[in-house]
Each structure stands twice: as structure tokens, then as C-alpha cells.
Fold these 4 entries.
Entry 1:
Amino acid sequence: DFRVEGSSNTHSFFVDAGDDHVNIGAAGDLGGRLNVHGNGVFQNADQTDTLTLSNTDADANVGPRLKFGRNSSSPADADLTGDIRFETKNDADQDVVTAQIKTNIGDVRDGNEYGEISFYAMTNGTLQEYMAFGSNAGNATVFNEQSQDLDFRVESNNSAHAIFVDASADSIGMFESSPAARLDVA
């Protein structure tokens, strides 16, 4: 074994030769070959990939896989199960989340579990939910659940407005970019 101590952690870096594991901040195995207890940051200063997950298996099974695991001893309905945030700086040097994907478990009862996933984007300085999937949405895909002024558009091969929902006018156009009635079919 090989162990490096820090001022507040006796296992800042620990190579467990018997179990073939490397631990950072953890005395014991957390379930992987590389075990990190605490936060981690990966940083680069160019346009290359910051993190790569690679699988060399040559079969029809899925791989590589990325797992987000919430391992609570007391799960509850509506627990958030993970989120992915896309952040940048604005011109005032403030951190801004420009887009986000959130997931939660709507019901934790065995046999009744259901998941939900929502997609958000920054609009006029506020993070808005654009689309959600899951049972809380009535086993549906819902666009604009928060009733914001967010239009919805489906393009065909030759039309940018094959289906167009004008949110501010509460109208739908089919092959019409400015619906003049509740339903305007060109």
C-alpha cells in the first residue's frame, strides 16, 4: 500500500495494493478502481475534450455509460435525482447558467416509480423550463408548462412553420407564421 496524508485527511491519496484501487480522500473502496470522496475539477485551457469516457468492448451492449446515482437511505417523492448545468460568464463577469437539464423521481413507492426530466434555457435573464417528460406531466411531453411567452415551431422539408404555436397570441398556424385566428391553416 501507499498512503499520502494531508493536514485534515489521513488518506488524501491512497493506493490499496491488495484490492488494486486508488482512493483520493477516501480510506476505503467506494465501488470503483478510482474512488474519489469529495468534489473534483477537471480543467484545460484549449478546445480539446476536457473529459472522455471510452469503452473498448466489442459487443452489442451499451457502452460507455455515465451513471448519476442518488443513494439516499430515505428517498422521498419529488427528490431531485440530478442535474446538468451549462455555465458561462456574462459581460458583468457573473456566472450564468445558460441551460440546464434536471431529473427527479415523482413517486418512490416500489412498483410505482416514475421519473421526470425537464429542459431549461436562459431567456431574457431568467432560466425557463421549455420542455418536460414524465408522469407529473400526465405521462406526456409538455412544452411551456410555465405558460411563458415561448413559441413552438415544427419545420417540414419546405416550410419553417409547418406547425407554429404563437404563445403570445394563443394561436396555432399550420404552414402559417402569423396565425390570424386560434387555428389558421394555410
Entry 2:
Amino acid sequence: MKYKMIALDLDGTLNNDEKVITPRTREALLAVQKQGVIVALVSGRQAPGLQREADALELEKYHGLRISYNGGRIQDATTGEILFDSAIDNETAVAFLRHLEQWPELSPIVDDGEYIYTTDASRHKVMDESRNNNLQVKIVDNIADAVDFAPVKILTAAPNEILVPHLADIRRGFEDKLSFVQSAPWFYEGTVKGVSKNSALDQACKRLGIAPAEVMAFGDAQNDMSMLDFAGYGVAMGNACDELKAMADEITATNNEDGIAVTLAKHFNIE
């Protein structure tokens, strides 16, 4: 078998625009797992936010992987064991949150695996992140004061026209400690320096004895570029950003047109 792992981004890739896995895509991924292929969900989402898709694809039955926080955590879907966890040290996290206070138009989103900490639930994308990731919202007077833990990721949210002019401001002074990537027009993500979807897949594959050439990866956004760079065969969805399409080995149909199933049918013996 040429490919032993299928690595999947979630939003805009595995899920259609209604945030669901279509029946055709689900059946295709169940079929390849029955052939012994490992399916890895590789998402910028917080860890609890991968549960729904993991259940839909029966990853627990097939020893799939849940890779969350843009590569910050790797978890075995069958045993629940955390295989890798890379958290931002508390001192750096608090300093970065203080740094973001200079721009009140930006909305920091930070979680402890159970709660999103915010000063106002109506801030940009806070409630969307709460719903998408099965996280409750905790209202605090000051986020930096409240964060007494080591978060795996710190997200900065704002409408695209506000966020993009601030990208250099956001990372200034923290480039040596954090890695940054824009995962959506309204999100800029910070993780421990060197952590990415690429680094997480590298660790997971070494543990499983899978070569990069044996990995097929699907994505749609800028934070998927490192994943496609790692994989032996990189597939950009038809709705992907131009940068991802330019580096992909294949451009498939969109996330609303069963792009994953279309490509899997070409490479695996499935209906």
C-alpha cells in the first residue's frame, strides 16, 4: 500500500461549509481505515473540538490520531493517551497577553482545555470557538491576570481588515519564543516555537514507523502549508487559498463537493 496515513485538516477540508462531514466523504474514510490506513485529524482547533469528527469517523476503532492546537498536542484516539504536548510557558503566555492589550480591537482567545478566558463573550469569534470546540466561556476582568496555566495555543482574533495590518505588531518581540500562522482570515495563532502541523506529523510518523512519502495530506488554508510540505502527496481542496494550491500535488474538488472522497477513489480500491 503506497499511503499508510491520511492527514486531514477539518474546517474547510473535512467538513463542508455547514460544518459536517458528508456521507460520501465519511464512507470513503471508513473504507480506507478498514484497509489499515491511519487517519489523522490535524487541526488548529483546541483538543475538545476534534471529538465530534473523531466519533463520526470511528477513529477510536481504528487507532486514529487527534492532532490539535495546530500541532501542539497529539493524542491516540483509541487509548486517549497524549503522545505529545507542547505548552507555552506561563511567563511567556502572560507577557504575550499583556503585549496584546495595546490593541483593544484584537480579541485574544486562550483556553485551558475546559474554558475560554475572555473579558466579554461578545468579542470577535469567542462564542464561535466555544461552540466549535466544546469549551465553556469564563468571563474574567483581565485575561493575563487570570491565566495561571501554560496554554498550548494563544489565538488572536479580529475581522480580516483589522487583523492583517496588525500581524507584524502581534508577533513583534515574540518571534524567538512563538511560531505564528494565520489559520483563517480572522485568526492568527501562536504556539511554542517550532510547533506546526509539520512537526506534529513528523513526530507521529516516527512513532508509527511511517515515512513522509507514505502520507497523503488534505488542506485548505495557510496553516496547512507545513502539513502538505511534510506529506509525500499533498492535496489542496478546490476552495483552498492560492498559496496552498500552488504547492499541492493535486487540487481536488471543494469541501462541499466531496473533494476528499474524489481523491481517495483515485488512489485506493474503494467505491
Entry 3:
Amino acid sequence: QVSIQNIFFIGASQLDKVLLFKLLGPAQLAVYLFAVAIPNEIQGILGNINSVAFPKLVDQDSRDFKIALLKKISLFTLILLIPVALYWLLAPYIFKALFPVYMDSIFISQLFVGTILFIPVSLIWHYFYATEHKTALWYGTILGPTTLISGILVFVPIYGLIGAVIAVYARAIVDLISGLYF
């Protein structure tokens, strides 16, 4: 079952790039990819903290554990405000130094960096994998990517690059809500 879920997840994550190319064109896609490059790298680094920080699930069904997990997610989210704010302030200088040709990417990058605040939500999904909560995992595998693709199809034609960022936020919010629901 997990393999089928991964196929859908990977397919959807590639389909978004194809749709962005078709809807935005190559020049705007390049601006978008440069805009999200550094925030995605930051997410990759900070996302590894989840794996290390995730406690051993000794008492997996405990209400106390679930409350403790939500507290850790809240604390981690508050801590992530620091790198998000720093990047938001430093993005113009970073782009001027590293990507001077893509100065148009700064605003989109500043908008996109806020998605880092959703990294702690993956702790909920770690919990679902650890407890083998199949229903939650199936919904999570389908809802998040479907929201992203739908968001791209709806928001990009209307708002362009900002619409692509809106689609990413919509997916993150759906992942959060469905994770909290289950």
C-alpha cells in the first residue's frame, strides 16, 4: 500500500512542475524555481530535525503523547519564525549576491519562505507512519497533492506566480487540517 501511495505522491510532485511550465511558460517557471530554491533548501535542513526530534513512540495511543506532540509542534513552529523572518529580511541581499539575474524572484521567495512554518506538521505524519494509521496515510497521500494540483490549476491562471505560492500554502493547510483531524 505504501508503494502505491508513494507513486501517487511522486507523480503529483512532478505534475506540478509540468503544469507550472504549461501555465506560466519557461521564463516565469525559472523565476519561480529560483524563488523557491533557497527556502526549499532551508526546509530540507530544518525538516531533518523532525526525524531526530521525534520521540520514541512507546505509548502510541496515549492521549498524553498526542498532547505532548501538539505542544512540540507548536514550539517548533514558534522557533521557526526566527529563520523565516531572517530570510525574509535577507532575501534581497542574498539574491543580489547569488542570483542577480533573478531579482524578480525576491518577492515570491519571501512569500514562499513562510511555508517553512508548516515543517512541524510532518511530525503528525511521522506519528501516523509509526502507528500504521492507514486511513490517515491514504487521505494524506491523496488530499495534499490533489489540493496542490487543483490550486495550481485554479490560482496560477488568475494570480500567476503568486497563485503557485497560494497553491503550496493551500496544500500545507490541508495537510495540517487533515493531520489534526486524524
Entry 4:
Amino acid sequence: MEDHYGHRISYLRISVTDRCNERCTYCMPDEEQTWLERTEILTEEEILRVVHAGVSLGISKIRVTGGEPLTRPGVVDLMGKLGAIPQIQNLGFSTNGTLLSRKLKSGVTNAQGLYDAGVRALNLSLDSLDPEVYRESTSRDLLPQFLEGLEAAQEAGFENIRLNCVLMRNRNEHELWSLVEFAAERGCLIRFVELMPVSSREVLTEENFLPAIEARRIIEFRHGELKPLPDYRTNGPASYFELESGQKIGFISAMTNLHFCENCDKLRLTAEGKLRPCLGSHLEFDMRKVLRDSSTTDADLQQFFRDVVDRKPKEHDFRENYQPQRRMIAIGG
């Protein structure tokens, strides 16, 4: 599949739930959230059918997200079924990390279950190492559980662990170097992510928004110039730099990088089955309705994919006075 701008679409991010055990201010700004009914969420069988249709058209990278995906019962088994699909070359999982050390019925941790299922790319959210700041950002006191989860992931064998830190002025800019050191000590790749107005435009105020270039200068002021790594790539749109020590640091600059969308190869499937061609666009198309129509064939699903890709915009709308309509937790991280 290729859109009108030459993007070869090979990456599908799948949200398996809108539920989460944390309440991050930029994802779900308040405690009041209308959760989807269980019948509204795509079943495991429906997700697998969508994926099979996608891989037949060139999808080779899958990342499962939430909400917090580990709050969905059976998600580890689902990952095993996804990992068994030969065309999937890269199977990733995004989590806040706080449930990774929890034991499955088999006795192994969630982290070990994910690794055994074939997951190799693991993204963990970590915005602060300060217990008070962590609690303010997530409305939960779960930093110890995060640390246990990271340890469980490394004990399970994960080597490709990426720590995603959302940049928040007046909250975590004083911790940037501590977070870099923390990642280096544990052999993880750290990426600093600009706030995006997905759930609320308030995140873009001067009081809240910390641009990636400023974060980079904060690090450089103390530890010297960062070396650009223009040829270093992961599955996302991060720009990477390197310290003299060899530690790599990524910056995801959706708001300030005017070339952010140039190499986009991604579609998003929400937990209730809306296929979205772009996170920063209100365009979404109801795949659940098609899936639950008994007359729908695999060819119909393939055509649905093609039609959505045909509507993929050139770039996101976040800089165009974007007005959020859904919480990030309802779209998928």
C-alpha cells in the first residue's frame, strides 16, 4: 500500500483497550472517563482478521498499545498469535511498565510472557524518576511498580527497551539528565517526546509546552554538544543524537519539526475498530461495522485498508489550531 505522497504503509499500531491503571494528564486530563463497553471493543478474532488482511497488503510491523494493554485479559496470548504470523517482521508492545512484573497463571511474569510470545521491541513510558512528580503526572503512586516492571523485562531477555519521556515544562525539565543517566545505566534507549494536543490544547501553553530543541540545549549546556545521527532509525519518527559516551538520545518533535511527517508509514486501529490514517487528524473509518457484517470477505477488508490509505493526509493538523475530539486514551498511544 502506498499513499498519494509516496509513503509505503507497512506499520499498524493496534489499541486493544481504552482502560488504563494510570491517569496521565496529557492522555486523560481528568478522572471522568466514559469507558467503552466490552461489546464495543474488537475481539481477539476480529483483531487477528484485521492483521491478516493488513499483512496481505504489506504490513510487516505491528505494535500493540492501549490505554494500558496489560489491563486487557488475554493480551499476552494475543501477542503469541500475532508473533506466529510469518509476515510480521517486527512485533512491538507499548506499556507504562507497571504491570510487567505481575504473574500470569503460568507463574511467569507478564514481561516473560511477552518475550516468549515473540515481542522484541518494548516501549515503556517514564516521565519522571521523582516519586512526587511521577504521582502528579500520572495521578498514581506507581513508580516502584514501574521499576519492578523494567527489571522484570530485562530479566525476561528484552534488550531493545525504549523509554519514552513526555517533555513537560515546570514538571520534568530539571530531570532530563537524570533520565539520560538512568537509561544509560540500564542499557535502554531514551526518547524525549513533545506534548501534542491530542486530548487537550492546554498542553501547548507556555506554562506546559517544552520544545525538543530546548530539551536538547538543556542537556548540551551541561554535558556538551550532541552528535547528530541522521542515519540511525527505529520504527518511529524520532531524530537521534549521541553523547561522547555512546549513549543515544531520541527526540520526537511532532510540533516543532516541520518535516515530522515526511516518512510516515503508519496506520492506527483504535480499540473499538476505527482505522485512522493519522494521529493528528480527525479522520477515522469504522472497521468494526464491516468486520461484524457476515457478508464481509477478506477482499472487502483489503479494500477497506486501501481506501483508508487513499485518505491519508500529507501531514498532521496539530499546528493548525487542532481541536481535540477524543482523549488520547481512546485513540491509542
